[in-house]
Amino acid sequence: MIILMKLNLGCGDNYLDGFVNLDKGFCKKDVEHDLENVPYPFKDNQFDYIVATNVLEHLNKANWFEIINELYRISSPNAIWEIYSPYALSDNFFTDPTHKMPLTTRSFDFFDPNKELRKLGVIYGIKTELIVLESNLVKNKPNGPDIYFKILVPKKPINITKGVKKRRNLKYFIKKIIGR
Predict the structure, then answer these.
(1) Which of 46, 44, 7 is nearest to 29 (CA)?
(2) If pLDDT is split at 50, 70 and 90, which confidence band does 101 have?
(3) Given CA atoms 100, 105, 110, 116 in this order, what sign does their dihedral have?
(4) Domains in the chain: how many in total?
(5) What is the extent of the structural domain holding 137?
(6) CATH number for the domain including 109?
(7) Looking at residues 8-16, what average pLDDT do you find?
(8) 15 belongs to a structural domain
(9) 68 located within any domain
(10) What is the pLDDT of residue 170?
């Protein structure tokens, strides 16, 4: 039996059973840690699935690459990240004075070798590679839109179109990890 390690990053009032719930605030959590402080209290390659709901926009823009690199470090090969955040130009982003990092549908393009912006990422010294599987605006009335990302953390070469060895295909693998 395979036991998947799942992390609920910045859990707030959304404590999830079966996850390691991390937060620094006054909420139910398993691990107390400030995400601005790197390194995180986890081993390399520890998590197969990371969910971050309304948390990354609260992090300092100046620390963005360092935080993404740290999430990469604690992610296992072929881990999946699901990220939800207010869209950078929405009322939802601007209304909250604690929001610091504006996100758009292209915020992870600097890390994706299949995206044009990856060239700039390389110039900026970004070595971490991620594959953006989905990047969509989603409705959030009356404040929306918000953004949803699904990101693959390859860490080793894989062929997305033919699937991963010992797994029927990438969709099957993702379904096993996140149950969708």
Answers:
(1) 7
(2) very high
(3) negative
(4) 1
(5) 6-178
(6) 3.40.50.150
(7) 97
(8) yes
(9) yes
(10) 56
